User: Which sequence fits this backbone?
């Protein structure tokens, strides 16, 4: 049986050297039937020369240079609209991928016809490729769509990563990234919308590596991301209710979960900022992204986080926690807050953020 065509969408901007390495890596993949689309977001470096040369050398490659920037999600939407394959995978050209990743994902989706997208566990690496940690998602091989939506909203985490997933184009349909919305967590909305009608798949192996660097879109503080999460996820709730008008109680529960997650996320960031030393120390176990970034909140950011913490309180436990945190900060007895961040995995489990 012929292998189905897979479109590899590479949205890129001013990363000519990384793009060259990525294209070289793709040529070593064990899945041959690829439609490789380079979508150049009006780069001003050597990306055009690299793209045109690659197109001339490999008939599977298409290079498109946009005369003006489409924005991050506009570039992703172009890849969706221009895909030719039965399946689509976004590849960010600063990350790394196992040569057998696409083969594994295609087998999975062929075996699971009711699954709309499949992803895997992954590793986090620095700019030189050194391992920083891993993300081993403790989820089922196949998660029913509604369960995925609720797990994602409650935990603030998605098991689907944009640059390490394969999506069934029939499952996407007319779903697109919101080009006018906040960048942070915009992909959550896409996967949740897809999950309304399809199951979500997961391969329990680390098949890709996310390269974290200081200029990455994800290199932001939690306090700067709260508005993104609140607006994008509440916007998703609005859309869900319009598509499913008979489920207001379910949506009301989701909105409470959104506030609960943001409250505990901000409490965690306050605790990180209370750690001793010039920079935030990393845990011995797999560190969080925010530990890896090693930042410390400014006095103004710390005050903003406290204000936001107060606004996201939901329920008696969070009101009590707020009083305790505010009291510790005023008395400058913040060691308990710092201590809790070293045990964030246990704390998340106790709080039900799973």
Assistant:
């Amino acid at each position: 049986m012929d292998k189905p065509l897979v479109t590899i969408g590479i949205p890129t901007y001013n990363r000519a050297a990384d793009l060259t390495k990525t294209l070289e890596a793709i040529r070593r993949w064990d899945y041959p039937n690829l439609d490789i689309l380079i979508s150049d977001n009006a780069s001003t470096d050597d990306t055009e020369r690299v793209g045109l040369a690659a197109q001339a050398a490999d008939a599977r490659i298409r290079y498109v240079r946009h005369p003006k920037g489409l924005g991050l999600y506009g570039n992703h939407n172009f890849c969706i609209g221009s895909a030719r394959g039965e399946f689509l995978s976004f590849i960010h050209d600063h990350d790394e991928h196992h040569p057998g990743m696409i083969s594994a994902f295609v087998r999975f989706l062929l075996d699971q016809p009711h699954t709309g997208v499949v992803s895997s566990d992954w590793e986090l690496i620095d700019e030189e490729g050194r391992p920083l940690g891993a993300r081993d998602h403790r989820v089922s091989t196949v998660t029913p769509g509604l369960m995925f939506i609720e797990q994602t909203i409650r935990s603030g985490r998605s098991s689907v990563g944009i640059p390490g997933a394969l999506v069934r184009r029939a499952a996407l349909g007319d779903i697109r990234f919101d080009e006018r919305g906040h960048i942070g967590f915009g992909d959550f909305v896409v996967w949740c919308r897809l999950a309304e009608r399809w199951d979500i798949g997961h391969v329990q192996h680390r098949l890709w590596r996310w390269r974290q660097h200081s200029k990455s879109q994800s290199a932001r503080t939690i306090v700067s991301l709260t508005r993104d999460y609140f607006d994008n996820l509440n916007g998703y709730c609005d859309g869900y209710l319009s598509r499913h008008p008979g489920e207001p109680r379910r949506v009301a529960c989701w909105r409470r979960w959104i506030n609960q997650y943001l409250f505990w996320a901000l409490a965690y960031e306050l605790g990180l900022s209370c750690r001793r030393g010039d920079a935030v120390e990393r845990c011995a176990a797999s560190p969080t992204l925010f530990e890896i970034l090693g930042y410390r909140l400014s006095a103004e950011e710390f005050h903003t986080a406290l204000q936001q913490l107060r606004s996201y309180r939901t329920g008696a436990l969070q009101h009590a926690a707020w009083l305790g945190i505010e009291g510790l900060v005023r008395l400058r007895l913040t060691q308990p807050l710092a201590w809790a961040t070293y045990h964030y995995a246990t704390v998340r489990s106790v709080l039900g953020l799973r």
In short: The longest strand covers residues 199-211.
